[in-house]
């Protein structure tokens, strides 16, 4: 690829988001410049669509968003595609999470994330200080913010359509045990899981990931994978990085991500790595 893509997909956490969970003004400006040159820019994130506005600078714009690890796609506020977890799966998983005392957030479409009120004590207890050393600061800050003001503590499951579950544990041992429980459940109800750190796991509809979302977004915009670049940093980016024609890993990505990428940024997410990469490669 001669680095003249027609579309660029950017991960958020660890990529355009720094470890304080903010997108810098420099990143916004380079995205504006790239789009002015006729290249379409998309977000491809594990986060829910509703989370994005609070993380980006005023006036931040992209051509589309693949959210919740491929569960839903937007062009502006128009829904391009959407998948939903079944009510049966939601009820089963919440019961299992309670039995295992696993921190969870359920994301209904169109309303704030929720956790059942009866589970609040052990969920809040998982986010007690001090921060475990192996937990990333951006994930810890997101959980602190969630329990303080983002989660709706509900008496019952609200809504009919759900984009994903997010699970977290203070210890790697606990989250790994939970992953094993989910693998057992997959034998009864099919679904997909995705991991972005050593302390979390997310749950989506079967056979859905960032790559499937990107394929649907490209189809909507009449673009092909051969014209596409993606930048990411973690395991949930692997399907996306393998799909596109030119893949870029962040400097702060683990070696397992860098090894499958075509290139690696010279700077980390805390050093405006995406800004410097796009500036040096596309603004010649």
Automatic annotation (TrEMBL):
Pfam families: Hydrolase_3 (PF08282). InterPro entries: Cof, HAD-like_sf, HAD-SF_hydro_IIB, HAD_sf. Transmembrane segments: none annotated. Keywords: Coiled coil. CDD domains: HAD_Pase. It comes from the Bacteria. This is Cof subfamily protein (Haloacid dehalogenase superfamily)/HAD superfamily hydrolase (TIGR01484 family).
């Amino acid at each position: 690829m001669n680095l003249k893509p027609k579309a660029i997909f950017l991960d958020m956490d660890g990529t355009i988001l720094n470890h304080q969970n903010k997108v810098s003004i420099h990143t916004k400006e380079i995205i504006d410049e790239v789009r002015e040159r006729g290249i379409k820019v998309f977000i491809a994130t594990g986060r829910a669509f509703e989370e994005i506005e609070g993380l980006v600078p005023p006036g931040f714009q992209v051509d589309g968003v693949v959210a919740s690890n491929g569960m839903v796609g937007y062009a502006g506020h128009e829904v391009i595609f959407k998948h939903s977890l079944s009510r049966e799966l939601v009820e089963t998983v919440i019961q299992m999470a309670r039995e295992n005392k696993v921190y969870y957030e359920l994301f209904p479409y169109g309303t704030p994330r929720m956790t059942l009120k009866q589970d609040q004590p052990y969920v809040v207890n998982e986010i007690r200080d001090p921060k475990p050393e192996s937990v990333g600061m951006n994930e810890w800050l997101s959980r602190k913010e969630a329990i303080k003001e983002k989660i709706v503590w509900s008496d019952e499951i609200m809504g009919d359509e759900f984009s994903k579950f997010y699970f977290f544990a203070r210890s790697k041992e606990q989250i790994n045990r939970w992953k094993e429980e989910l693998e057992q459940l997959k034998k009864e109800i099919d679904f997909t899981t995705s991991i972005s750190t050593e302390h979390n796991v997310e749950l989506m509809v079967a056979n859905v990931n960032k790559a499937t979302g990107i394929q649907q977004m490209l189809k909507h915009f009449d673009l092909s994978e051969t014209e596409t670049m993606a930048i990411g940093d973690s395991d949930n980016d692997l399907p996306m990085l393998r799909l596109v024609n030119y893949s870029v890993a962040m400097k702060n990505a683990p070696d397992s991500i860098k090894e499958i990428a075509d290139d690696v940024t010279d700077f980390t997410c805390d050093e405006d790595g995406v800004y410097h990469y796009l500036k040096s490669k596309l603004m010649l």
